[in-house]
Amino acid sequence: MTRKETDERFMRLALSLGRRGMGNCWPNPAVGCVLTQGDVIVGRGWTQPGGRPHAEPTALAQAGRAAAGATAYVTLEPCAHFGKTPPCADALISAGVARMVIAATDTDPRVAGQGIARLRDAGIEVLTGVCEAEALQDLKGFFLRLAEGRPMLTLKLASSFDGKIATASGESQWITGPAARHHVHGLRHSHDAVMVGGGTARADDPSLTVRGFGVVRQPVRVVVSRRLSMPLGGNLWNTAKDVPVWLCHGPDVSEEVAEAWQAQGAELIECHLEGGGISVAGVMQALGAKGLTRVFCEGGGSLAASLLAADMVDDLVGYTAGLAIGSEGQPSLGPLGLGALSEAPRFDLVEHRRIGPDLLHRWRRRA
After folding, report:
1. Per DSSP, what are the bridge partners of residue 270?
2. pTM, to two decimals
3. Where do the annotations place Zn(2+) binding (predicted)?
4. H or E element, residue 46
5. What is the spatial distance between Cα 330 and Cα 159, in angstroms, rounded to a whole number?
6. What is the spatial distance between Cα 269 and Cα 246, in angstroms, rounded to a whole number?
7. How far is CA 16 from CA 31, 88, 102, 207, 293, in A?
8. Gap between the Cα atoms of 33 and 203, Å rounded
9. Buried b / exposed e across 3-39, counting CB within 10 Å, b at 16+?
10. Which of 47, 188, 237, 315 is the most buried (most CB within 10 A)?
11. Which tens digit of pLDDT belongs to each residue from 199-227?
């Protein structure tokens, strides 16, 4: 195996470790680190829940004295600033690491090449750009928040073959099978927050929690509703003190309703209006300002259409079931107001496979 092949092999392992932190470490990036002596792994680490310890000190602690002279594979440039923990670049230097392989450089102005410079100044060999495309994809939400002030957004649509999410009477449980629903819970777990519109909160009374994965850190539950017209006493209401509930509302919400939700433990986020409804771009900016890097939207149709129209959707995940509901059913998307096909948002297919009796298809924003 060539050195290039070895570097890519260990970096892909570091990337897989970093994904374990997704949804658990915001606003910090989910980073992975592997330490090796030759072909032997002596330390592994990833960003821990809450964002610390970082991946590098976790791997160094596992390696102990074996870190001296080792090669470190890290998915993001080590930090070079003092935050709540000392710089990871300094920890790597102190441990005596001889070589660094880095997937992506950090665009955070507190780092932005300074970590690499500090490592090189200490005499450490540094190689960058190994598996960079995969790292940039995994860390997309972190970079988007730095560049645009918003988290990345995954939009999930589970529908019948003809694109319906419910019958005309509103019956929707269950269009897709258990395997697809379990997969959705896994995606919830890998995101910082799960978001729905007020209509979905009213119709489905969802919990929006991760279930079927043991005891895990739950995502923030976000509801976008101009006037907070959701049922008091529902699942979100009853669990707001246990799992965070953030309510994005307009400036014209009733003071009585707002105070009731706040007393129940929910956090209210006022967003400006645009075109008669809440600005979804404003919602995304507000969520980014609060530290979120990855948001998983589960509808409904109006919110999904608004996000697509505002060019806020980065990934699309579809679950299509083998049944037809007909034109009287409720569509998965609300009106987009398109005048021509050229105006339609387009995505590139990155994955498709059978999941139980259903079809999973995953799409990515077209560059």
Report:
1. 249
2. 0.94
3. 54, 79, 88
4. strand 40-46
5. 10
6. 7
7. 9, 20, 14, 29, 18
8. 44
9. eeebbbebbbbbbebbebbbbbbbebbbbbbbbbbee
10. 47
11. 999 988 999 999 999 989 999 999 999 99
Backbone angles phi, psi at 234, to 5 degrees: -85, -170
Closest to 250 (Cα-Cα) out of 231, 224, 275: 224
Residue 86 has what pLDDT? 82
Range list of β-strands (E), 124-198? 125-128, 152-159, 164-166, 193-197
CA separation for the pair 314, 324 (Å, rounded): 28
Q: Is 301 annotated as a binding residue?
A: yes
User: How far apart are the C-alpha atoms of 278 and 306, rounded to whole Å?
Assistant: 10
Q: In the chain, which residues fall in CATH 3.40.430.10?
A: 150-365
DSSP track, 91-102:
HHHHHT--EEEE
Pick the CATH number of 3-142 from 1.20.1640.10, 3.40.140.10, 3.20.20.140, 3.30.70.580: 3.40.140.10
What is the Cα–Cα distance from 52 to 6, expressed in whole angstroms?
28
Which regions in the chain score pLDDT beneath 70?
Answer: 82-84
Tens-place pLDDT, residues 41-79? 999 999 999 988 999 999 999 999 999 999 999 999 999
Determine whether 125 is an active site residue. Answer: no
Amino acid 84: pLDDT: 67
Q: Is 187 left (phi over 0), alpha (psi -120 to 50) or beta?
A: alpha
Q: Which of 5, 8, 56, 134 is catalytic?
A: 56
**Region(s) of the chain under CATH 3.40.140.10:** 3-142
**Is 9 among the annotated ligand-binding positions?**
no
Q: How far is CA 266 from CA 76, 141, 289, in A?
A: 34, 24, 18
272 annotated ligand binder: no
Question: From 3.30.1330.10, 3.40.50.920, 3.20.20.100, 3.40.430.10, which CATH number describes the 150-365 domain?
Answer: 3.40.430.10
Please measure the distance between the N-terminal and C-terminal CA atoms of the chain and give it in whole angstroms.
Answer: 34
Q: Is 302 annotated as a binding residue?
A: yes
309 in a known ligand binding site = no
Tokens in use for 203? 């119709």
